[in-house]
Amino acid sequence: MQFGAPQQVNPMKWSIAEEKKIKKLYCQTKLSLEEIARMTGRSVAALNNRLTKLKVKRRKPLKFKYPSKITPALARIHAHLSGDGNLYHSKEKDCYGPWARYRKNLYRTKYYLVYNNNYQALLNEFWQDIFSTFGIRGKKSEKNRIRVTSKKAYELLKRLGAGGSFVWKIPKEITGSSNAIMKNWIRAFFDDEADFDDDGRIRVKCVNKKGLIQLLKMLRKFVPCHLTPKKGFYWGKTVCININKKDSPKFFSKIGSLRAGKIQRINAIK
Length: 270
Prior knowledge:
This protein is of the alpha+beta class. The protein has two domains: 16-53; 72-269, Endonuclease I-creI. 42% of the residues lie in helices and 16% in strands. It has helices at 16-28, 33-40, 44-53, 72-83, 120-134, 151-159, 172-175, 179-193, 209-219, 248-254, 261-269, and strands at 85-93, 107-116, 139-142, 145-149, 194-196, 202-206, 226-228, 239-243. It starts with 15 loop residues before the first helix and ends with a helix.
């Protein structure tokens, strides 16, 4: 008795179970196409084409909300991008989407806001601030990174001087604003860049002396502090803002910190 060769399954063919799964993930969750593609082992282009053939009603894209004024949330976004964040743009291949077949040039410039931090509370705050300020959602591209794709947000924050370790600056819209705005900028930047010593001292080391002097002037409205050194650069071409041990409780009471909560509680007990 002869048996025929085993039937080969076409890996490109979609099964009924797969189609039901992607419809459920797309319609009943807020997962992006990229996230669903990773979960199903398909490409974004294949996923997009299959949803089109299944006549799945597409989600309405979130509309960008342009902020009419500087808010505490926008001040924190600016500070985070100047601390542990970055602004950049790049030309990328875009060969999927409803208009892909009509596009002559497959490459287009995309604009990104990226924030990296190991502290989950700060990542969550950044994500929420982006959504409340601009009406758009950031995506967790890696374990400790949130990336936002938006040309309008990029241009606004670039105009306000955010991003770039050597060139960031604090605009007059923040330095001349209310105490609440200034405190939120300081708190966000310190949570990214400050060293909170076990002895109670606080120090921010930075290569951007002009930006640090702007920060120093704002900080002195709330807490005594000093710049080291006053002239030239410190080791490794950096300068430092220092808050002495006796003044650190005032920093925590007036400015606060998400990252240094344990130190704050210890100082409060003392």
